[in-house]
Each structure stands twice: as C-alpha cells, then as structure tokens.
Write a structure and sequence with these properties.
The chain is α/β, with parallel strands linked by helices and 266 residues long. It is 40% helix and 16% strand. An eight-stranded parallel beta sheet has the order 1-2-3-4-5-6-7-8.
C-alpha cells in the first residue's frame, strides 16, 4: 500500500540534482512523496529554491535563510532580501538557520548574530523557523528561549540527539524532523532511542537529500546520492520504532507538516 508523505527538508537545488531533477521529483511522487519543502541555505540558494517552488506549486514549497556555515555573510541588505523572499507564498519558513560549532566555518559570534537576526525576521514575517544545531546545544537553546513567545513555530531539522536534547527541544515548543540517520544502527543509536518519545503531533519526516542516504537500503543504490523517493523507507523505520503502522505515521506526519508550514492540502 502506497503511503502519502511530505519531505520537509530536501536540497533539490543541489548541483547533484541538476542533470535529472525532474526525474528525481517524478520518482518521489511515484512512491507517495506528495510535496517537498526545498531548503534554502544562503541567499543565492534561497532564491533558486523559491524559483523552483514557484515553477512547481503543486509539488514544492521552499525556505529562505542563511545556514550557520555562511553566517559571516549576514548583513542588513541580506536580511532585507530574505524578508522579500518570505513575502512569496511558496516560501513557507525561515532557514536553514542556527548554530554549528562542529565545523565552525563562520566565527561563533557571527553565527549567533545571524541566528538572532533570522529569528527576528521569522517573528516579524510570522513564519516558522527551520533549525540547524550541531555541537552548540546550550547556546542554541538559550537563544531560542529568548524568542519562544514571538515565533509561530520551529522544527529541529535533522534531529540526531538523545532524550535530554529531545526534552529540551520539546520544552521550547519545537517540532522534530527525523531523517535517514535513524536507519543507521551505529551512529543513529541515540536517535533511535528518542524516536518513540517524540509526541505524535510534533514529528515530521525529511530526507535532507542529497545527504544522509539511509544506510540500510537493500539493494544498495549505486550512487551515494540520497533522494526524496527514499522517504517511505525512512517512514517505515520510524513507524517500526514507534510501534505504529506506516500508514498511521504517514497520516500524522503529513498532517503535522501541512499545519506547521501552512501548506494546505498537498
């Protein structure tokens, strides 16, 4: 039985999809991925994501934001450009934004400043935030705590943490995005322990394609490129960990994504 799903985080504008993007979208639709939210990670990419979503309004929406890797680029004009993008109906969230102290591609003070600025933009635009956090939990939660009352919502994109991190995020009112990290019995052990404890109305699914190819795909794809068409595989793994049917999980996560991003009926 085909299940209907929404991929809340796909990087369809990534260069690896350039040769066959239409085929990638068709494969996803064929297995029941009815809509994708295309992630914006910098200004150029956010513009491309918005344009792609505008070309396929029945299949795609997008986000607009500055990933912490690019935080050093944030300035007032860039913030104005993001505000302009967010006025477009297909642009449904601010992000990917947050903190990344693992890579530190931008100075940490610049990361914090860009994160705060984007949370202010989200509060003003009345759109939710699509959040990134790696090795920065304390600063990340402290900043979000200051904005909790002014945000319409937030989702912890590609959550990989254990119960303590999960409980902190839930206390902040965040939704939780789960990727194919859950399919890795080695690296994903803490996430697999957390998944059953995510409230059903806070859980959403994503591939983060072309990244994070599920490790347990059988047969193993020749390419290491992840695709949105693998979202049902992720959904079945999450459903198994939660003791739910895939159909029940698909229905609840789709309903959550529609409500969170204001998508309407996909």
């Amino acid at each position: 039985m085909k299940i209907s799903l929404i991929d809340i985080g796909s990087n369809l504008t990534h260069e690896s999809f350039a040769p066959d993007r239409d085929a990638v979208m068709a494969r996803a639709l064929d297995v029941g991925v009815r809509r994708q939210v295309v992630t914006g990670t910098d200004l150029v990419n956010s513009r491309l994501a918005a344009a792609l979503a505008a070309e396929h309004p029945e299949l795609l929406s997008s986000t607009a934001g500055l990933h912490p890797h690019h935080a050093r680029d944030f300035d007032a004009p860039l913030g104005g450009e993001l505000r302009d993008l967010l006025r477009q109906t297909q642009v449904v969230a601010v992000g990917e934004c947050g903190l990344d102290y693992f890579r530190d591609f931008s100075p940490r003070d610049a990361q914090r400043a860009a994160f705060i600025a984007q949370l202010e933009i989200a509060a003003s635009a009345r759109k939710p935030v699509f959040l990134h956090q790696r090795d920065a939990h304390e600063d990340f939660t402290a900043i979000l705590r200051e904005f909790r009352g002014g945000l319409t919502g937030g989702v912890a994109h590609c959550f990989t943490g254990g119960r303590p991190e999960l409980e902190d995020y839930l206390a902040l009112g965040l939704s939780i995005g789960v990727t194919g990290w859950v399919n890795d019995e080695r690296r994903g052990a803490r996430l697999r322990e957390s998944v059953p404890h995510i409230p059903s109305d806070r859980l959403m699914l994503e591939t983060d394609a072309p990244y994070l190819l599920p490790r347990d795909l059988d047969p193993r794809p020749k390419s290491r490129r992840n695709e949105p068409c693998y979202l049902p595989h992720i959904a079945r793994a999450v459903a198994h960990l939660r003791g739910e049917t895939a159909e029940h999980l698909a229905a609840s996560t789709t309903r959550n994504a529609i409500s969170f991003f204001g998508l309407g009926d996909p």
